[in-house]
């Protein structure tokens, strides 16, 4: 008797739990009704078999609770689960798309890579690798696009069928959706409401595998893309580097010859300048006049447009090595050549020295900087002995002055910023005054090249509550 | 579940509601008796696992009302009675049933 009563109570307890898990709020009422039913069915005897048979007629508690839960919304009652949002359903569609379209992508990328590899050996300078690849890759792309279109049609139809049949697709499961019968309609609802509509909890194992597969497809595609592009562009990059190096080599040769001050070199290099609008003699004279001490490559910009290639070589001419900081000016050499011609076949068409219209200001020398600071200190009625005592404090002041100067520069209307990016390169601190060297950069078209102009500023730094403030400045250029 | 079983499940789903409402239109009944009455009707009858959920939905829909009665036997019973709304629904459902039945009979008579 006790054992039978225990079976009934266990059943009812489990039923109450299942009902509550499905959001049925009056689980106790139904449980009591079933208790009454079982007692009556067992004839009040509490016979073990009679109770067991009566309970068996109700089925497992989980199934009964599911039926009760689903019946709640069978009439389309208010409060039933709503269709998942369009973005949520869209995500499921995307997952399905990845699962189906992913494998073709994984195969297409190696196929194009292989084609690129083969095309490398047949590509000619006239056509180039991209030209050799155009037809086969276009065919692959066309086939792939057609396949995707067909797939999208089939997939959409398959999804509709799945929903009508009450089966969530893999993408839906992966996105946490399921299909429920609500008020006689099949709706795609969040899986979290599955219990509430009497459906078993969504098994996400398959969905998890699908999600991992989709992610793997994306990662594989991303990983394959880089080497593929590398192979495709490998030949042109090598070729490009050769022609760039050739152009830079020509310019270096010009500088070496000009700085050697050897008059014999002038005659031999004049032909290089024949189409540039200037002469080697004028070019070399500029170095002498401005006391240029050295040169350095400042970057290149290589372009291939149709049958013509162009190369701009930026060089830095260094001067005034005894200044507080080194100073230089830019020179731009522009070359052109027919595409596919030998690497060194460059024609110099333009030489622009100091495109910013300023000679290489040497900036104040260390001696001059000290004099300027002293002058400013005297003007302010201060003493040059009024210095920060310890090295640590000096360092603190240096950083603070730099930060303050940066803020002042960036917010100042006096510093030309149109097309320029002022930046702080260094700071010289002298007690309560700071020498700040800035470089204002002009970005060249395309952004690959830039040229800069140095400016030197002196800042008077006031100490206030341990912080340095910049309250004024003088341009020293 | 084959096609016929699916069809039967759908067919019985609405039918059970109709039968329960018809039984309750005759007299007030509690769940156990509803199950027994339906079982007495034969194979079309629905079991406990179907009747109780449907009773709850009919109650939620306002077609039946209920009250707990504590009998002398000590076993409380929940009695269900059809409401006016339930009677109106039943009348419409039976009319639809009659119409459907006549259509089916007419079609079968042509064979």
Defining traits:
heterodimer; A: 477 residues; alpha+beta; Nuclear Transport Factor 2, Chain: A; 4 domains; 12 helices; elongated; B: 111 residues; Arc Repressor Mutant, subunit A
What shape does the CA trace of chain B take? globular
Within the largest sheet of chain B, what's the order of strands? Answer: 1-3-2
User: What is the radius of gyration of chain A computed over CA atoms, rounded to a whole number of angstroms?
Assistant: 40 Å
What is the terminal separation of chain A in angstroms? 107 Å
SSE pattern of chain B? HEHHEEH
- Percent of residues of chain A in helical segments? 40-55%
Order of helices and strands of chain A: HHHHHHHEEHHHEEEEHHEEEE
Number of domains of chain B: 1
DSSP, total strands of chain B: 3
Query: Which structural class fits the helix and strand makeup of chain B?
Result: alpha+beta
Name the poorly predicted regions of chain B. Answer: none
Biggest interface in this structure? A-B, 24 and 21 residues
Percent of sequence in beta strands of chain A: 15-25%
Strand content of chain B: 5-15%
Q: Name the CATH architecture of chain B.
A: Orthogonal Bundle
CATH homologous superfamily name of chain B? Answer: Winged helix-like DNA-binding domain superfamily/Winged helix DNA-binding domain
Report the average pLDDT across residues of chain B.
86
From the 3D structure, determine the CATH topology of chain B: Arc Repressor Mutant, subunit A
Helix percentage range of chain B = 55-70%
- Shape estimate of chain A: elongated
What does this structure look like?
The complex is a heterodimer of chains A (477) and B (111). Chain A is an alpha+beta fold. In chain A, helix 2 packs across helix 3 (48-58), helix 5 (86-122) packs across helix 8 and helix 8 (205-259) packs across helix 10. Chain A has 12 helices and 10 strands. Chain B is of the alpha+beta class and 111 residues long. Chain B has a single domain, classed as Orthogonal Bundle (Arc Repressor Mutant, subunit A). Helices cover 68% and strands 14% of the residues of chain B. Chain B has helices spanning 3-26, 31-40, 48-61, 84-110; strands at 29-30, 64-70, 76-82. In chain B, strands 1-3-2 form a 3-stranded antiparallel sheet. In chain B, strand 2 (64-70) and strand 3 form a beta hairpin. The A-B interface holds A 29-30, 32-34, 36-37, 39-41, 44, 57-59, 63-64, 67-68, 70-72, 74-75, 77 and B 13, 30-32, 35, 47-50, 52-54, 56-57, 60-61, 73, 75-78.
């Amino acid at each position: 008797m006790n054992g039978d009563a225990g079976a009934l109570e266990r059943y009812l307890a489990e039923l109450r739990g299942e009902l509550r898990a499905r959001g049925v709020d009056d689980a106790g009422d139904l449980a009591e009704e079933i208790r009454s039913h079982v007692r009556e069915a067992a004839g009040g005897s509490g016979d073990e078999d009679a109770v067991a048979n009566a309970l068996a007629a109700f089925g497992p508690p989980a199934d009964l609770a599911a039926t009760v839960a689903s019946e709640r919304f069978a009439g389309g009652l208010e409060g039933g689960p709503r269709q998942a949002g369009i973005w949520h359903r869209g995500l499921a569609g995307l997952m399905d798309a990845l699962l189906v379209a992913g494998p073709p992508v994984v195969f297409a990328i190696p196929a194009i890579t292989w084609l690129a590899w083969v095309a490398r050996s047949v590509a000619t300078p006239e056509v180039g690798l991209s030209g050799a690849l155009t037809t086969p890759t276009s065919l692959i792309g066309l086939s792939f696009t057609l396949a995707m279109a067909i797939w999208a049609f089939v997939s959409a139809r398959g999804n509709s069928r799945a929903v009508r049949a009450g089966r969530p697709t893999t993408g839906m499961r992966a996105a946490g959706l399921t299909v429920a019968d609500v008020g006689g309609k099949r709706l795609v609802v969040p899986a979290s409401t599955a219990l509430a509509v009497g459906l078993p909890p969504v098994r996400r194992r398959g969905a998890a595998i699908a999600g991992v597969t989709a992610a793997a497809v994306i990662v594989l595609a991303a990983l394959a893309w880089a080497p593929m592009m590398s192979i495709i562009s490998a030949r042109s990059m090598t070729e490009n580097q050769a022609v760039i190096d050739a152009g830079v080599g020509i310019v270096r040769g010009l500088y070496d010859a000009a700085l050697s001050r050897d008059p014999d070199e002038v005659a031999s290099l004049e032909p290089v300048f024949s189409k540039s609008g200037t002469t080697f003699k004028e070019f070399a004279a500029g170095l002498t006049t401005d006391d240029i001490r050295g040169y350095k490559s400042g970057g290149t910009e290589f372009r291939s447009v149709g049958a013509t290639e162009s190369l701009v070589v930026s060089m830095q001419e260094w001067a005034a090595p005894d200044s507080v900081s080194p100073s230089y000016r830019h020179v731009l050499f522009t070359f052109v050549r027919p595409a596919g011609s030998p690497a060194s076949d460059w024609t110099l068409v333009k030489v622009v020295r100091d495109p910013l219209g300023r000679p290489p200001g040497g900036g104040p020398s260390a001696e001059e900087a000290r004099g300027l600071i002293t002058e400013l200190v005297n003007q302010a009625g201060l003493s040059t002995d009024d210095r920060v005592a310890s090295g640590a404090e000096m360092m603190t002041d240096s950083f603070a002055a730099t930060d303050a100067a940066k803020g002042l520069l960036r917010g100042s209307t006096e510093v030309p910023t149109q097309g320029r990016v002022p930046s702080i390169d260094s700071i010289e601190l002298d007690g309560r005054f700071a020498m700040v060297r800035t470089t204002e950069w002009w970005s060249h078209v395309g952004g690959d090249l830039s040229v800069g102009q140095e400016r030197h500023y002196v800042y008077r730094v006031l100490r206030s509550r341990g912080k340095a403030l910049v309250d004024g400045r003088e341009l020293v250029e | 579940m084959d096609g016929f079983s699916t069809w039967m499940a759908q067919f019985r789903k609405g039918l059970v509601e109709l039968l329960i409402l018809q039984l309750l239109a005759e007299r007030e009944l509690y769940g156990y008796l509803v199950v027994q009455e339906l079982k007495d009707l034969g194979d079309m009858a629905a079991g406990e696992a179907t009747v109780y959920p449907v009773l709850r939905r009919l109650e939620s829909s306002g077609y039946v009302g209920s009250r707990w009665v504590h009998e002398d036997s000590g076993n409380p019973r929940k009695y269900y009675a059809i409401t006016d709304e339930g009677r109106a629904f039943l009348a419409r459902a039976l009319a639809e049933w009659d119409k459907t039945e006549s259509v089916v009979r007419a079609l079968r008579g042509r064979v």
